[in-house]
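To: structure subgroup
Subject: Chain for Friday's discussion

All,

I'm putting the inputs and outputs inline so they're searchable in the archive.
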Amino acid sequence: MSKAPFKDLIFRTAAVISPRCGFIYACDPRLERREEPHAYVFLWDDGKIDRGDCNYDAHSVCLIDHPEDGTVDISEAGYYTADTDDDRVTQDLFENSAPPPKEKRSRGLRSVREIGGVAHAIGIRGMVYRMDVLDRWTRIDEGLPGSFDGQAIHGFGGSDLFAVGFKGGVWHFDGKAWRRQDVPTNRNLTAVVCTAEGTVYIGGHGGTLLHGQTDRWSLIDHGDTAEDIWDLEWFAGKLYVSTLDGLFVLDGDRLRPVAYGKHTPKTTYQLSACEDVMWSNGETDIMEFDGKAWTRIV
């Protein structure tokens, strides 16, 4: 489709809903340079576009089905919007959460992820929150050290979570307590995905790729890229690995570059998947994959 609706904008993140439909978050680099908080939110539905604006730097989004079907986005500063068919809540996560932390918190949220249908947010200084109702988050990070700079979180359910962060930090939550995992790297870790097959994959700087389960971790010595890994997604029974330099699929112990055909994008960064399709977004490209062929969204 034409890039006209996105002219002079760059994409921050995206979330696919169904084939040919999803949310795209973008920003104006001129406003970013002036440090003016903003984000443009586009609902893209088979080429039809509905645009909304927000007055904070929304940079991460996920779909939820609890407490209602909808979306949740967050900013680094803690502002978020939970949007459903019946309600729309825009508030400050730090002001609308409990129990209170020992020290007042502000800023530092890195990403939000749906786990078991529920939004979970993670950030630096040992922060993890779960959204139980649209206007209230539960702080579930008791036991995580302030030195843990969390970047990404995923899990098999609310009582089986994996949080990853800088300096080889990997922590597991069993619903009651956090326990540090002993992993064979001290690289900064920036992505984690729990697969339908029961394996956890973790990606990070320098092409670091781990796999395993609680208390059992090993490096995948793929030797195929030393680029930082920024996102992982499990789709159609395969692991997809995204860097800023390209998208790969894990084949045995090797990372094979994705073959796009005639729709090769210039930029990659994040991944989002639903049952039938996966999206890849970079600063200037949104691509859709149905398991057989790639189609350009933008």
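Points worth raising on Friday:
The radius of gyration is 18 Å.
The first strand starts at residue 10 and ends at 18.

D.
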